[in-house]
Amino acid sequence: MSDTILTLTGVQADIAQYHILQGVDLAVPRGAVTMLLGRNGVGKTTTLRTIMGHLVARQGVIGFDGMDITARATSARARLGIGYVPENMGIFSDLTVEENMVLAAVSGRLLAERRDRIFAAFPPLRTFWTSDAGTLSGGQKQMLSIARAMAEDRKLYLIDEPTKGLAPAIISTMVAALRELKDGGASILLVEQNFAVARALGDHAAVMDDGRIVWSGEMSELADDAGLQERLMGLSMEGK
Question: So where are the chain's domains?
């Protein structure tokens, strides 16, 4: 495979008494979008949380940009250039949109050029810049969640189901913003249940089942093979 920015080798992780990740092997190419796919409950979110350090890998190695980060704290991983957009959005409802953005910047300040780029990607954030984040709609909160990861350039973006529960018009805005990140050379590991979004954005794909990666390859190969989709994920997504 081409130059990789992230590798997981035999990674195992638990949540309470449950053994969720059972030996994950994954390589995320640099400068591309890798889709992490699979049925609900197979370990996709747990994989992102373990990469970010929210969960401890009890076995295996996590390598990032040539470094072993398996034992590093979440804050250290963020400083190395990993941005994380959790499924629950992770915004501060009692702070303004602007304050949320400033807090997300590792340097502690949001450059005007970066702010304007975010406004171009997500116009509603300009309108609600001084409003409390808790007053935003669900779609606007998701925009803010992704915008927070864009507050500074990251070497790697981990994004968990950014279009979940959103209206089609908001999904289109989200896809356009993620495509802009992609076109700018970003490395992205993206969990997404909407196969049309996965097909539109993904360069590579890895499919999980029962806490392991069971298939990896080009996203186009998976998108074009209904039989492979059914075998790996239990349903055909052809035409979706």
Answer: 1-81+154-165+183-240, 87-153
Residue 46, φ and ψ in degrees, nearest 5 = -60, -35
Dihedral of CA atoms 62, 231, 199, 13 in degrees, nearest 10, equals -20
Class of domain 1-81+154-165+183-240: alpha beta
**pLDDT per residue as tens digits for the range 5-46:** 999 999 999 999 999 999 999 999 999 999 999 999 999 999
DSSP for 7-71 reads: EEEEEEEEETTEEEEEEEEEEEETTSEEEEE-STTSSHHHHHHHHHTSS-EEEEEEEETTEE-TT
Write out pLDDT tens, residues 93-149. Answer: 999 999 999 988 877 778 898 899 999 999 999 999 999 999 999 999 999 999 998
